């Protein structure tokens, strides 16, 4: 089946095309042929069994215009392997998945609570502050610094992230990605996107310069310090991937990925809990039973809180944040099932088709924590839960995001009752845009302090 459509259109067409042509089909987005893999078996086979062949990153012209093939998210080949290996090792050295990162998240959750208390129970739009919190967590890892919520430079950075996410999912950027050679020179929102990116890079370069001045090789503090030390080790290697340009791009990738995706999930989670107050009540019951009011939630609590754990998983499943995954590409000519896929072909792996599989998640369109609970109320894992993708390009932050989500949600519900401004049945939870990443509708709520 060969069609010419835009990404936002094709997301809605995937189920029908898969029903007509099977789990592997080709379509055209603009002038570019794209192979779509639909359903758990096809996605798993491609990203696990053929993980090496499909490890390249598919091209997105608007991203290519700013990252120049560098960094960790949109790079490919040997440079990508070096960056990913280094990043995973360094993040682990800095405590990713360990107690000290947990303590940073707990600290940030407390700051978040104090900020919500300032509203005194009045209507409040949580969008901005829920971006600041995860942004501060990743800043503590890469910059060894958290920012106050009224720091003007920090607030400006958060505005840039939010604005660029909105622009990235706009129809105009889809047009740019189809005919970049023409659109690049025209006026339009892509110019704002590129300008915002330059401002983010300027901020990062300022931080890198300060790190160069204070670096102690015997006592590295954060990701930038480790990278600068690696650059020094590799300075005689003409082919090294460890350059200042790659440092800036990798830090940008970590900064953006560690902020925006978690922020969107937190906002969607609160929106779902406003829509389903009975679920929020059950979480509070579990908090009262396991944690109480005299200490902060910690990750050890998760094992004793299966319902809350199930809710956090269901929020991520139902959100379906990156519906078609970030684009992969065939690294070489590849035989996949009965199909010959040429080198360089873009591959879309439909995460929606996995997260919304009715065989595994009955009534998948419904928000139901029972999707992750067994008959006895124990938490139930599922191989179909892959909001961070799977395989060689699984999200580097897959260990941090679940920690943030669990600790922030439990801390908020330990301290507040969430009050909607309208009848819960009238709350709209449908994203206002679904392109590469979901864009959520704005909303307000009241944070009423728990007695």
Automatic annotation (TrEMBL):
Subcellular location: Endoplasmic reticulum membrane; Microsome membrane
Listed GO biological process terms: organic acid metabolic process; xenobiotic metabolic process
Necessary cofactors: heme
Molecular-function GO terms, alphabetical: heme binding; iron ion binding; oxidoreductase activity, acting on paired donors, with incorporation or reduction of molecular oxygen, reduced flavin or flavoprotein as one donor, and incorporation of one atom of oxygen
Taxonomy, superkingdom: Eukaryota
Name of the protein this chain belongs to: unspecific monooxygenase
Keyword presence, Heme: yes
Annotated PANTHER family: CYTOCHROME P450 2C9, CYTOCHROME P450 508A4-RELATED
Keyword hit for Membrane: yes
InterPro entries membership: Cyt_P450, Cyt_P450_CS, Cyt_P450_E_grp-I, Cyt_P450_sf, Cytochrome_P450_fam2
Gene Ontology CC terms, in alphabetical order: endoplasmic reticulum membrane
EC top class named in words: oxidoreductase
Keyword line: Endoplasmic reticulum, Heme, Iron, Membrane, Metal-binding, Microsome, Monooxygenase, Oxidoreductase, Signal
Alphabetical list of Gene3D superfamilies matching this protein: Cytochrome P450
EC number of this enzyme: 1.14.14.1
Pfam families: p450
């Amino acid at each position: 089946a060969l069609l010419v459509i835009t990404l936002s259109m094709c997301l809605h067409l995937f189920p029908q095309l898969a029903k007509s042509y099977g789990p592997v089909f080709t379509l055209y987005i603009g002038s570019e042929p794209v192979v779509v893999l639909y359903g758990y078996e096809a996605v798993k086979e491609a990203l696990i069994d053929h993980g090496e062949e499909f490890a390249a990153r598919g091209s997105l012209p608007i991203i290519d215009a700013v990252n120049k093939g560098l960094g960790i998210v949109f790079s490919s080949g040997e440079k990508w392997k070096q960056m990913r290996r280094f990043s995973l090792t360094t993040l682990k050295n800095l405590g990713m998945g360990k107690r000290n990162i947990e303590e940073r998240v707990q600290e940030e959750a407390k700051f978040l609570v104090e900020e919500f208390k300032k509203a005194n129970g009045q209507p409040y739009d949580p969008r901005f502050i829920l971006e600041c919190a995860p942004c501060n967590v990743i800043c503590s890892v890469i910059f060894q610094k958290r920012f106050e919520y009224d720091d003007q430079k920090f607030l400006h950075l958060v505005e840039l992230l939010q604005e660029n996410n909105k622009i990235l999912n706009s129809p105009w950027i889809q047009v740019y990605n189809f005919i970049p050679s023409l659109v690049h020179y025209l006026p339009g929102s892509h110019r704002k996107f590129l300008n915002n990116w330059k401002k983010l890079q300027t901020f990062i370069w300022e931080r890198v310069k300060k790190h160069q001045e204070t670096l102690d090789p015997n006592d590295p503090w954060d990701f930038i310090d480790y990278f600068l030390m690696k650059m020094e080790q590799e300075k005689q290697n003409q082919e090294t991937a460890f350059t200042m340009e790659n440092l800036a791009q990798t830090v940008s990738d970590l900064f953006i990925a560690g902020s925006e995706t978690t922020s969107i999930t937190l906002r969607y989670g609160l929106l779902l809990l406003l829509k389903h107050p009975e679920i929020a009540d059950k979480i509070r019951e579990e908090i009262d039973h396991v944690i109480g009011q005299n200490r902060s939630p910690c990750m050890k609590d998760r094992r004793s809180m299966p319902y809350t754990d199930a809710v956090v998983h269901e929020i991520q499943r139902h959100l379906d944040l990156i519906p078609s995954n970030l684009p992969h590409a065939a690294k070489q000519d590849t035989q996949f099932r009965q199909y010959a896929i040429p080198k360089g072909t873009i591959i879309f792996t439909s995460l929606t088709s996995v997260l919304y599989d009715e065989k595994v998640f009955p009534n998948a369109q419904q928000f139901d924590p029972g999707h992750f609970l067994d008959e006895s109320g124990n938490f139930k894992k599922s191989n179909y839960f892959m909001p961070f993708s799977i395989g060689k390009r699984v999200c580097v932050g897959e260990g941090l995001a679940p920690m943030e989500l669990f600790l922030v949600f439990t801390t908020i519900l330990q301290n507040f009752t969430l009050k909607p401004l309208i009848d819960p049945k009238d709350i709209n939870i449908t994203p206002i845009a679904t392109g590469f990443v979901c864009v959520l509708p704005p909303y307000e709520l009241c944070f009423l302090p728990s007695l």
